[in-house]
Each structure stands twice: as C-alpha cells, then as structure tokens.
Amino acid sequence: MKGAFLPDSRFIRFLTKVCDLLLLNVLTAFLSLTVVAAGTAMISLYTAVIKMMQEEEDGEPVSCFFHALRENFSPSVPAAPLLFADVLLLALLRYALIAETLVFSPAAFVFLAIAAAFLTALLSYLFPLLARFENTFSRHLANAWRLAAANLPVTFLLVTVNLLPLLLAVFLPGFFPLLAVFWLMIGIAASAYLNSFYLCQIFDKLSK
Which of 78, 59, 54 is closest to 132 using CA atoms? Predict the structure, then answer.
C-alpha cells in the first residue's frame, strides 16, 4: 500500500496527470471566453497534452501551455473564426432540437448538421497540426482535410468525442448542469488528451 504513494508510482503519476489536466482545462476555458484567444488556447492545450502523451520531461504542462500561448497567437488568428463558426452552428442545432416550435426546415437542419460535423472534423485535426508542426495556415488547413479523409475511423472517433457535450445535453437534458460543470473542470482537456492518443500515432507516421 505504501508503494502506491511513492513519487514514481502509477497512482501518483495518475493523480499528477489529472491535476495537470484540471489546470489546463481551467486555463483553456477561461481564455476561450474571448473569441480572439480561443484559437490560441486550443493550440496551446494540444501542445501541452501532446507533450504529456509523449512523456517529455522538458517542462511542466502548465509552463508549456503558457509558452505555447506566447508562440502561437499569430498562427491561431485564422483558426479562431472557424472555431467560432463551429460553436455557433452547434449552438443553433441544439436550440433547434430543444425548441418547442420548428426553427429550421428538415432540409436546412440536415445541411447545418452536416456542415457542423465537417467543420468539427476539420478542427479536430487543425488545432493539433498547428500545435505539432510548423507550416503555413493554408497548408495546415489542406493537411487537416486530407488527414480527416484518410483516417475516417479515427475522424469519427474524434468528432464523437468533441461533440460529446452536445450529444449528452440533447439526449440527457436532466444531467446538463452536471455535464457543464464537468466539462468546465476537466472535460475539454480530457478530450484533447484522449484525441492526442490517436493523433500522435498518425503524426508519428507523418514524421517518418
């Protein structure tokens, strides 16, 4: 039992990782309150969690987050409107689902749902690419589309994970307050960490 509390034990490493994700989540959620800083926050989050996934010892995740925050403001500017558009689409879709009257025609709703799914898929690769590689934004955008199309099972998983708050809010509305608290505390960072498990495998193949 005492061994579980040693600094290098799995239990302590797990607790440390959870605490790091909590801190990263709070920072990301706070910065995402502004449209301009939301893109930078997401890139910085993925920079930190990818290094956590790779177990790099060159710095603490929070320090890595702040360093990436300074480095990635310019690259994140074009990505911020895409993120804002995706969030707006998802908000409209949720409103249409819970509204008592018909908000959109069925055809319009399907079109908006497909657009939101495609945009979510694009962003699921775009922010990690911006965090991991140096390139022009247009090439990152093109690469995000290629990777999303070439890795459809992973893309489906990433989209499902990233849309999980919306899906749970729609199908389990009674748990929405609890879900909102969970996502504001650790859900954003935990999703990025889970996504990075699969993304790192794809990125490692690109680096070879």
Answer: 54
